[in-house]
Amino acid sequence: MGGVASSVAAKLAFFPPSPPSYEMVTDPTTGMLRLSRFPHRENVEVLRLPTRRGTQIVAVYVRNPMASSTLLYSHGNAADLGQMYELFLELGIHLRVNLFAYDYSGYGQSTGKPNEQNTYADIEAAYKCLVEQYGTKEEEIILYGQSVGSGPTVNLATQLPRLRAIVLHSAILSGLRVMYPVKRTYWFDIYKNIDKIPLVKCPVLIIHYASKSSTIWLGLSDEVVDCSHGKKLWELCKEKYEPLWLKGGKHCDLELFPDYIKHLKKFISTVEKSPSQRSTPQISTDRFEPPRKSSDCFEPSRKSSDFREKHRLSTDKMRTKDRRSGNMDKMGKLKASFDQLEKFRRSVDHVDKSKKNTDQLDKGRKSVDRLDRVWAG
Fold first, then answer.
1. Which residues lie across from 239 on neighbouring strands?
2. Which fold has domain 2-363?
3. In the chain, what is the greatest distance between 2 CA atoms, to the nearest angstrom?
4. Half-sphere exposure of 272 (CA within 13 A, CB side)
5. Checking CA distances to 297, which of 20, 116, 188, 371 falls within 20 to 30 Å?
6. CA triplet 266, 197, 76: central angle to 5 degrees?
7. What are phi and psi of 245, to 5 degrees?
8. Which stretches are tagged as biased composition: Basic and acidic residues (predicted)?
């Protein structure tokens, strides 16, 4: 029965855009690979990387000549590189970092199927490329995991004791805890961040949405995940940095807030200093900071951000109807497995007695995160 639960959790975790938002093409002028939607840029490289599990993943490396850190970015579960590309360019500029991002197996033009173990192999291949091909040192790398991307991020961080830092953006405690408020970890759970985060030895920045109801919305679903996911992870971190609780934000729009860039820049500036040079108030260990106030968008002067927002809204209008229909069909096929999981849960875990009915599980079947694709409709 645990295998059924694990399989259902995995199916709930991954929603690769279909069709992919880009194709791989060879630029006729340079002979280099690029994403079909975007022209060749001198500071951007597109690569195919083999993984230890036999798949090939697509990756993008964005250079910044002023950078002293490299961000290894693991995106959310309902986006691919084509949808994230413009954000990556902006982050590279505003944060003054090199940025390396990749599509999970089964996403975009990466081969294979998405599952927990494949994502671990995917991020390992990305890290290996940074070290071996670009000469990046472990202590220069900042791992960045958004939502489901927090799983491979935390897992890799436990293996790299000299990392510069990690950033967890709308992170989850575990896959099963997205669906149920269980109090202990089962062997069949996926992305057990709650058990792994205490093993991370570098500074950790938590970025999470905070509202009056202390919840975040998940994609098309009416189901919510408590903001306590982010707060609990913060509590368990060994080397805590001042967290960013974005009041009024949603699960997939946090990067639109001015404080997002400001706080991230401040964090990177701090961790780039040697430990003895870091300002002690920045590494917080005693209590939560109150939610930081933010507006609903970037400052008007950020033209590139305005362009990205307009592009996001226009793209949403074209895709929302088909995406919703496809996801509803996929969720309908999982109904039998969900019913089995609900019976198993009642028989082995009394902590779930408080759940009034199985409608919440039915709602939880949808995306763990919709970066910017479905709310405009």
1. 203
2. Rossmann fold (3.40.50)
3. 63
4. 14
5. 20
6. 70
7. -100, 110
8. 286-332
Amino acid of residue 155? N
Contact between 317 and 374 (Cβ < 8 Å): no
CA–chain centroid gap for 173, Å, is 13
Give the residue carrying structure tokens 């919840």: 215
> Look-up: residue for tokens 């950033």?
167
Distances (CA, A) of 296 to 91, 127, 246, 311, 314: 18, 34, 10, 17, 18
How many helical (H) and strand (E) elements, i.e. helices and strands, does the chain have?
11, 13
Side chain identity, residue 74: S
**Pair 256, 209: CB distance under 8 Å:** no
> What distance in Å separates the CA atoms of residue 163 and residue 166, rounded to the nearest whole number?
8
The one-letter code for the residue type at 324 is R
**Residue 225 CB neighbours (<10 A):** 25
What pLDDT is attached to residue 254? 54
Q: Is 205 in a helix, a strand, or coil? A: strand
DSSP H helical ranges for 334-371: 335-348, 359-363
Residue 272 CB contacts under 8 Å (≥ 6 apart), including other chains:
68, 69, 164
**Start-to-end C-alpha separation, the chain:** 38
Q: How many CB atoms lie within 10 A of CB 54?
A: 11
Which amino acid, one-letter code, is at 19? P
Q: Is 371 helix (H, G, I), strand (E, B) or coil?
A: coil
Residues belonging to the active site: 147, 222, 251
pTM for this model (two decimals): 0.72
Where exactly are the structural domains of the chain? Answer: 2-363
120: tokens are: 């671990």
